[in-house]
Design brief:
Elements: H1 3-13, E1 17-18, E2 21-29, E3 33-40, E4 43-50, H2 52-58, H3 60-71, E5 84-89, E6 96-101, H4 120-135, E7 139-140, E8 149-151, E9 158-160, E10 167-168, H5 191-194, H6 202-222, H7 234-243, H8 253-262, H9 267-273, H10 276-280, H11 290-310, H12 319-343, E11 348-356, E12 361-368, E13 379-390, E14 397-407, E15 420-423, H13 424-432, H14 435-452
Antiparallel strand pairs: 1-2, 2-3, 3-4, 4-6, 5-6, 7-10, 8-9, 11-12, 12-13, 13-14, 14-15
Helix pairs in contact: 4-6, 6-8, 6-9
Length: 472
């Protein structure tokens, strides 16, 4: 529908009634429909009326099926999802329509430069909450992007719009109204969605949703659209979506880490690193108490134990990834040696590194001897373990595990299964910054505290003392 067709349709609708809703002023137009203000009694809404040419081209039944998906949300409400009020076919005029609440907010795309950085965690968590609301009802949005999100003038509330491309999960016989092989927006679509290789399962579509949420978060953090420099020509944008790893930087490290993980090309790795809780926890300052940290550690132990059973090492690792893995292991050894020389806290007994390039794995285990003169009458063991889980087009993703344990007896690395995922860029911060030293100092500090209370565990009572949360 071009501008002239839209104008004709708008003029024919103004001051008429469709589906019991009285239509007044024009609000906007798209490729397939026009939107106008409408009222029914005391209710005020925005009515979307579909162009008759669309109906003639693809058939009424297909368009009605699409409208019924939106209408299935009538009576349901979420503060960050546009409310659907009515929809169907008008008996008097024959028009197909959907009525939604009227929100006169600007869209996120036009407001990117104005949005305060401190509001970003709240806004993206709200959008994710709306997407999860749909998923809980077996529906997937498929076109989450800044243009389909509006934001309140005080930037406290975001609302997800455009439910016209809703798709039920697992509906293999679904026919999209316009018969296009691709439904969505290229720039904000994951590689598997672009190539129509997404799995028609709850997890498969969740991976697509996470990618699109990460793309929106990218725009909020960077204040520009994803792959902006790759916009033209069209094949260049396609190549960027399939292969380019976006670089994201901002003051909020947790948001950066989440956006980076959401935009991973491999959907399986994306789902392994991202869950709904990561979005919802963004607006909340991360707790720094030891008890809550231990609760997180226990949850991660369970996750990694399951992951270890389910995952199988790849038969081979590329030469590039071998070099990266070797570099990681060598730098860990060097960093630990330098750190121990500076600290001189415990008498170092042994440092042992193990590398297995075929399985993409390396670990460094440091054992400290007893030192009665320093008040330490037990052993302290510290472990750093790195596993390559995704080559990610030359920007590898590692699973990093850090653990410290005090025991009266000998302890093996396999008895210290705590861990945490990090991205390669965060690996630089861990190895070259002060984070590694902070992990050691935290372990030592806790060790002395336990000595003072005479609370020294055995192997069966291993207490995890220090885990650096480099990415939530």
């Amino acid at each position: 529908m071009d501008a002239a067709q839209a104008e004709i349709l708008v003029n024919s609708l103004q001051n008429t009634t469709v589906g019991g809703w009285h239509i007044s002023e024009f609000l906007g137009a798209g490729k397939s429909a026009v939107v106008l203000r409408c009222v029914r009694g005391v209710e005020i809404g925005a009515i979307k009326v579909f162009h008759p040419e669309l109906i003639q081209r693809y058939g009424k039944s297909i368009q009605l099926e699409r409208i019924l998906r939106e209408k299935s949300l009538v009576g349901f409400s979420h503060p960050n999802l546009i409310r659907i009020l009515a929809g169907g076919e008008c008996e008097e005029t024959g028009h197909l329509y959907v009525v939604m609440e009227q929100l006169l907010f600007p869209n996120l795309h036009t407001e990117l430069q104005k949005i305060p950085p401190e509001t970003v965690p709240t806004l993206i968590s709200q959008i994710a909450s709306a997407a999860r609301f749909l998923e809980d009802r077996g529906l997937i949005h498929r076109d989450i992007k800044p243009e389909n999100i509006v934001v309140s003038p005080d930037f406290s509330r975001a609302v997800l719009l455009d439910l016209g491309v809703l798709r039920p999960v697992g509906y293999s016989n679904l026919t999209d109204v316009d018969q296009r092989p691709f439904i969505g927006t290229l720039r904000y679509s994951s590689p598997e969605f672009l190539e129509r290789k997404e799995e028609d399962t709850l997890e498969g579509w969740r991976a697509v949703t996470f990618y699109q949420l990460g793309a929106v978060l990218h725009d909020l953090l960077m204040r520009r659209v994803l792959f902006e420099e790759e916009s033209e020509p069209y094949p260049r944008l396609v190549k960027a979506v399939l292969e380019k790893i976006p670089i994201i930087h901002a003051s909020n490290a947790r948001c950066v880490a989440l956006a980076t993980h959401c935009l991973l090309k491999n959907p399986a790795t994306r789902l392994e690193l991202v869950n709904w809780e990561r979005f919802q926890s963004l607006p909340v300052d991360p707790p720094n108490t030891l008890s809550l940290a231990r609760d997180r550690i226990k949850q991660k132990q369970k996750f990694f134990q399951v992951a270890a059973i389910q995952s199988k090492p790849s038969a081979s690792v590329s030469k590039l990834s071998r070099r990266v893995l070797d570099d990681v292991c060598n730098r860990v050894e060097s960093r630990v040696a330098s750190l121990m020389n500076d600290l001189q806290a415990f008498p170092l007994r042994t440092t042992k590194s193990v590398k297995d390039a075929e399985r993409g794995f390396c670990e460094t285990c440091i054992h400290f001897e007893k030192d009665l003169q320093k008040g330490i009458d037990f052993r302290l063991t510290f472990l750093l373990r790195f596993s390559l889980i995704d080559e990610n087009f030359g920007k590898p993703i590692f699973r990093a595990e850090a653990a410290a344990a005090m025991t009266c007896e000998e302890i093996l690395p396999s008895q210290m299964p705590i861990g945490h995922f990090i991205q390669s860029s965060e690996l630089e911060q861990l190895l070259d910054g002060s984070n590694l030293e902070a992990i050691f100092m935290s372990a030592l500090d806790n060790a002395y505290a336990r000595v003072e209370t005479n609370d020294i565990p055995g192997i069966d009572e291993i207490i995890e003392l220090a885990v650096k949360e480099v990415a939530e």
